[in-house]
Amino acid sequence: MDLSSYYHLIFTLLAVLVSGVIFFFSRKAGGKGLNLPPGPPGWPIVGNLFQVARSGKSFFMYVEDLRPKYGPIFTLRMGTRTLIILADAKLIHEALIERGALFMTRPRENPTRAVFSCYKFTVNAALYGPVWRSLRRNMVQNMLSSSRLKEFKGIRDDAMDKLIDRIRAEAMANGGVVWVLKSARFATFCILLAMCFGLEMDEETIGGMDDMMKTVLITLDPRIDDYLPALSMFFSKERRRAQEVRQAQLDFVIPFIEKRRKALENPGSDKSATSFSYLDTLFDLKVEGRKSGPTNAELVTLCSEFLNGGTDTTATAIEWGIAQLIANPHVQSKLYEEIRSTVGDRKVDEKDVDKMVYLNAVVKELLRKHPPTYFSLTHAVTEPTKLAGYDIPTDANVEIYLPAVGEDPKLWKNPEKFDPDRYISGNEDADITGVKGVKMLPFGVGRRICPGLAMATCHVNLMLARMVQEFEWTAYPPESKIDFTGKLEFTVVMKNALRATIKPRA
Ligand code: HEM
Predict the structure, then answer these.
(1) Is 450 annotated in some ligand binding site?
(2) Which of 4, 135, 391, 442 supports an S-S bond with 367, CB 3.0-4.6 Å?
(3) Which pLDDT score, from 0 to 100, does residue 426 have?
(4) CB–CB of 5/221 below 8 Å?
(5) Is the beta carbon of 465 within 6 A of some atom in ligand 1?
(6) Looking at the 3D structure of the chain, how many domains does it have?
């Protein structure tokens, strides 16, 4: 939610002018008499919107600064949106696990998101109800269950080999120096693309698809009129642009949907087509309460969700993971030793990964310290309720702030330290699903927990293991200290994108 680039003083003036109008209308709808959690005082109408925007900080940094003053639950008013931030393990457990049924829906969509989500026809955006149940059940049972995951092993093996070749080629061309995020992103995207469409694509097509998806993500960045709809008259150019991007997305993706449909109708006609894909499950999808299956536009939206949900998140984890292995060479050596003693001279296979206790500890620690997103997706309550004695109205955005839990000194010894051994010694542990208590929640917890959890951890484990097996990773420039500052770019990536020096293992 990096708003700062949008805002100039002129908006402040504009907002003040228009605020009188909004004030008049919003008084009727206003949440009077509610006992909302505390929060920084804001201006009439715009609330804290301009304070956040003009702070020049990413939204997560702004929230981090407020925590010492306002504690585990607080409110930010962003124009017409009320954000209630939860930053405490116990409260999050109460909301998402103990009272999960109540906190499991999503808030209303802004107009741009409504267009791209086909009016909430995705797993992540759907309101709690029959559409969400049908879409989520289909995704989990037909794509992400452990038995289904096994069927895509060939795709993963292929992508891992290509990842190593790509890194090696980049190092050869650049004196042993490589960018980490780019290669991890490409490998993950290739896996998800193959799972999603079941078609072979050349590098140019993959690049085109990736550019398209990135353009969509940028178009979905929040705008000021999402918070102050009365200003939407000043954003007609942006609205037109969003429609154009949506059309371009449809024009780009629908031919692949048709190609897959043809391949299924005429088995054997496309030799590169795989036996199974996410699209196949969607062609036949029966959605509770609907007579017909998804339209082409809806299929585009659902495929984009599958690709976007798993690409940047996974790649971001790899970037932070490699950074920590460089900053902690003893961890990297220990991991390499485990790999050697488990597989000897052959390539790490995903079947080995379960046996590698230290690798799993490294990945867990990495997700605790660096959850790829600092907020889970926004939740909302299905009916008005109370939490910690405060009112939670149905039109509030309930935001779950993840680092508050993973770095809580009441829950973790030396939380700032990257220390995979904390899990090995048996002194500390955490159930990543949060059922037994929330101590870290990189995938969220409760009924809306990330359905890609098992696949994502498989990808992160496998990629890190292969990358460490093949190369020794050190800093670039040599001996330099790694800067662990993060910045928001859909996920929280490293502010200075990680470059590393690599040496093939003997
Ligand atoms: C390291 C990788 C990943 C991380 C850290 C991650 C994290 C998250 C988080 C924090 C949420 C929000 C949970 C909530 O609303 O409380 C989420 C939801 C979701 N994720 Fe992931 N995710 C990852 C990979 C994936 C993958 C590989 C897929 C599928 C291809 C995926 C698909 C989804 C979907 C569809 C939702 C929405 C679930 C719902 O609303 O019911 N994610 N993820």
Answers:
(1) yes
(2) 442
(3) 81
(4) no
(5) no
(6) 1
